[in-house]
Amino acid sequence: MNAAGSVQAGLLTILLAVAVALLAAGYGRGVHELWARRGAGEVLPGWRVVAFGGGVLVVLAADSGPLAGLAQRSFAGHMTQHMVLLLVAGPLLAAGAAGLPLSLACPVRLRRRLARLRSARGTRWLRRPVNTAVVAGAVQTLVLWVWHLPAPYVAALDRPVVHALEHVCFVAGSWLLWAPILGVTRHRLPGPVAMLLLVATMLPASALGAVLTFAPRPVYPLRALGPEPLADQQLAGLLMWAPMDVAVLVAALTVFLRWLLRLQRQHPDAVGPTEPAGPAAAARTEGVLR
């Protein structure tokens, strides 16, 4: 990267930090107002606030410091950066349930416009569980595949603005995917729908990781890879493949178990207690057989 590119990258880093700081400040203001109105932890538990703060810190750490330096030296380092944004930052931000706090932080006029937007026909259609799952899965898959095609990936390496847009797409796509799974209960997808969403999203990511891992030759230009191009590409494929599969499978299993426990609480008598065998039970059985 030349001197002009380095200056541009530095300016973008500052702008990113300012944007993230404004996002965190708006969330904090909304949380303060929400807790002042309804009591701390009643609507938005403290652990969600901590999760959102952790997501903000992860975004800043991924775009600066050692991880950013590692991303500049190899494709595997860049893939590590991408997985941190997709599998750590996005879920943490989604768990923060930022919709209500951020809307409360907006001016009254903008807040009214957001309320009208939520009641619009298109928004109501999008908020249906199945529609939400289809849109979220499609956006996540599209973002993952498009930005890992050779031309967009090289463009992100050469142009800091494109690189920043790439990371915004990763965080936004992951946030959208995990919001109906980790968000507040009333906006969560039903257990079976959430499981199908996670598995359907995992399969294209696994396919992309497999392509990078088993490709007989480098898919990307050599200048975009490390000192050992093929080995660097294979390691990057494994870094996409294994963590994505493990994280999604663990999340899907957790959603499934949570769904079963909810069904058990809602229908405790669906499976009645087993009656112990004894003389009375044997007599009734004998009577039925007769």
TrEMBL record:
UniProt topology in membrane: Multi-pass membrane protein
Transmembrane segments: 6-28, 49-71, 83-108, 129-149, 161-181, 193-215, 235-257
Keywords, comma-separated and alphabetical: Cell membrane, Membrane, Transmembrane, Transmembrane helix
Pfam families xref list: Caa3_CtaG (PF09678)
KW Lyase (keyword) present: no
Region of interest (Disordered), residue spans: 269-290
GO annotation, cellular component aspect: plasma membrane
The protein's name in its UniProt record: Cytochrome c oxidase assembly factor CtaG
Organism taxonomic ancestry: Bacteria, Bacillati, Actinomycetota, Actinomycetes, Micromonosporales
